[in-house]
Design a protein that fits this description.
Elements (H helix, E strand, L loop, with lengths): L1 E2 L6 E2 L22 H14 L6 E4 L4 E4 L3 E7 L4 E7 L10 E4 L4 E7 L7 H14 L3
Antiparallel strand pairs: 1-2, 3-4, 4-5, 5-6, 6-8, 7-8
Length: 135
């Protein structure tokens, strides 16, 4: 693991290319509905219990990393786009879109209310966490 000395983001590869952007998480939620902040907080309370885990910000997203980036949360106008990676394609009603990469799949879930953060939702995120952590 490598921590960029400028932006303090964590990367799997030493000196990994990236664009350093120092942004507070709260800035990502400016002009967004209060409900999205509550949803985000509920997700973070659950997933930050899984260790190792580190949260950092990019230009438009929050990125969570253990051995590698495993969860990307993008605040949108009325919802959070929650993306996680897994070795196999997952077939679940909660998943809005999937993208196939050479060695993995990206799965997107959209949430906009606290009630959307269900045990099934958290189970899917845990699959992504375990995949990135090598389990």
């Amino acid at each position: 693991m490598w921590i960029c000395p400028n932006c303090e983001r964590i990367f799997h590869t030493h000196n990994q290319y990236h664009i350093c952007i120092i942004k507070e998480m709260g800035e990502l939620f400016l002009d967004k509905p209060d409900e999205l902040v509550l949803v985000f907080d509920k997700i973070m309370q659950a997933v930050m219990q899984w260790q190792p885990n580190h949260a950092g910000t990019c230009k438009h997203t929050v990125v969570l990393t253990n051995k590698r980036a495993w969860l990307i949360i993008k605040p949108m106008k009325l919802a959070l786009d929650v993306k996680f990676y897994c070795k196999e394609e997952i077939d679940a009603e909660l998943i809005k879109t999937r993208t196939k990469y050479p060695n993995k799949y990206a799965h997107h879930i959209r949430v906009c209310r606290e009630e959307d953060v269900t045990s099934e939702f958290l189970h899917l995120l845990r699959v992504g966490y375990d995949y990135a952590n090598g389990k």
